[in-house]
User: Which sequence fits this backbone?
């Protein structure tokens, strides 16, 4: 029986989906995490603990493990393990993206440089530093611009600025966010040693790119030998214009004209080629501007969070099953997405504080077209909105005959939810690097 190695960070939302997919396909699973966890009960003879920050050492550990448990495929579940996955696959002699291409896909500055060199349509950019005079930097910026960290995910730390004063405030705020994240990344474990090692200098750099107007879309695809197959193209009907960029609704199929969709797919494939990506899942974010598509970023992994539940293929295959099957057999045919329209709402966190409760769940689930509603927040959990935070309250999923019907169902369902959030004290907010907060409850 073939065996797949799943690289699963302990913070990922996606453990259940990938383990269930492997079980459905009847393959053996080895789960690798950065520290021991309760997944051992799922497969106690096949749990690896790897140093995710040291790919060469982790690859050697997997090669040693494979002498007694052959690994037939490696699947990197989230962005933080794509470089690790490339290194392990190379060491095992499996089909893989190069470590260099995976690194470029994970670092927004390297990504922009490669896009520029290859002529991929993407926003003009420059590299900024927290150690540089901010007024001097602002004088070189074409506004409106977007300030963003090099490697954080889910729009965390991404801030629009329309003039020099807003730019300076945005950089100051980003510095606070990066300081908090750096403190988390260098926290010590039970043994007193550093659980992660990151170069502080890299955390003091950030990207400044010109804001691109136009509707934003997300492309889910699969690469085989450098050729891109589009699995789904999502519209994002809520305008993402800033100052922060919290994503809410994804709906597929896209309502853009067929010509525009073809241009987007071609542009995404060109971008993947520029990065050197050749194998596996791809999640791309693009804007469709007046002069055509512009690539915001390309990730060497599948769609994040629980959003994959909005996708079904063939006779009901999940995205995770498709990914594992393709990783095991590079020649397998990719099934088409289901005919029905589908979508997901990532329920935004619009107030900072501690989650108390949510009302209206029954009414929200009863909306026609709603298939699932999952609240991830738990009692007393601290909630932090963008740009400091990067997690959602939950997810709503819908299906319907048309994209418009799906979008309408998602909005109607969310409107019935009432969240009670207890505001942080000033000292709690300060410890999280938050600015002065409103004392209002969410959806009072």
Assistant:
């Amino acid at each position: 029986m073939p065996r797949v190695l799943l690289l699963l960070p302990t913070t990922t939302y996606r453990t259940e989906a990938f383990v269930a997919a492997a079980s459905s396909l009847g393959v053996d699973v080895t789960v690798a995490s950065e520290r021991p966890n309760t997944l051992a009960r799922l497969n106690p003879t096949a749990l690896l603990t790897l140093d995710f920050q040291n790919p060469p050492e982790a690859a050697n550990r997997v090669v040693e493990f494979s002498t007694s448990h052959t690994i037939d495929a490696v699947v990197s579940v989230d962005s933080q393990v794509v470089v690790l996955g490339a290194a392990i696959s190379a060491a095992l002699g499996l089909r893989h993206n190069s470590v260099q291409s995976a690194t470029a896909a994970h670092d927004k500055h390297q990504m922009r440089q490669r896009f520029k060199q290859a002529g991929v349509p993407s926003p003009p950019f420059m590299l900024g530093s927290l150690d540089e005079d901010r007024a001097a930097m602002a004088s070189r910026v074409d506004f409106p611009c977007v300030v963003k960290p090099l490697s954080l995910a889910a729009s965390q730390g991404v801030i629009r600025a329309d003039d020099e004063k807003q730019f300076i405030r945005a950089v100051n705020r980003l510095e606070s966010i990066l300081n908090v994240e750096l403190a988390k990344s260098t926290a010590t474990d039970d043994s007193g040693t550093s659980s992660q090692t990151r170069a502080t200098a890299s955390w003091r750099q950030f990207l400044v790119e010109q804001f691109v107007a136009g509707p934003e879309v997300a492309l889910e695809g699969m690469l085989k030998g450098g050729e891109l197959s589009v699995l789904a193209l999502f519209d994002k009907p809520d305008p993402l214009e800033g100052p922060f960029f919290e994503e809410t609704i994804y709906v597929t199929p896209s309502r853009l004209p067929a010509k525009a969709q073809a241009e987007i797919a071609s542009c995404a494939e060109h971008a993947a080629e520029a990065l050197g990506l050749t194998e596996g899942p791809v999640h791309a974010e693009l804007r469709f501007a007046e002069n055509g598509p512009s690539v915001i970023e390309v990730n060497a992994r599948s769609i994040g969070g629980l959003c994959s539940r909005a996708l079904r293929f063939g006779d009901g295959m999940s995205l995770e099953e498709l990914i594992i099957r393709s990783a095991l057999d590079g020649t397998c045919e990719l099934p088409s997405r289901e005919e029905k329209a589908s979508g997901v709402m990532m329920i935004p966190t619009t107030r900072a504080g501690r989650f108390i409760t949510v009302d209206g769940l029954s009414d929200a689930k009863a909306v026609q077209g709603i298939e699932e509603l999952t609240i991830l927040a738990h009692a007393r959990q601290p909630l932090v909105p963008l740009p400091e935070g990067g997690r959602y309250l939950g997810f709503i999923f819908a299906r319907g005959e048309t994209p418009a019907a799906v979008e309408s169902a998602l909005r109607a369902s969310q409107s019935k939810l009432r969240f009670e959030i207890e505001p942080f004290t000033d000292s709690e907010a300060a410890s999280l690097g938050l600015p002065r907060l409103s004392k209002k409850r969410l959806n009072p």
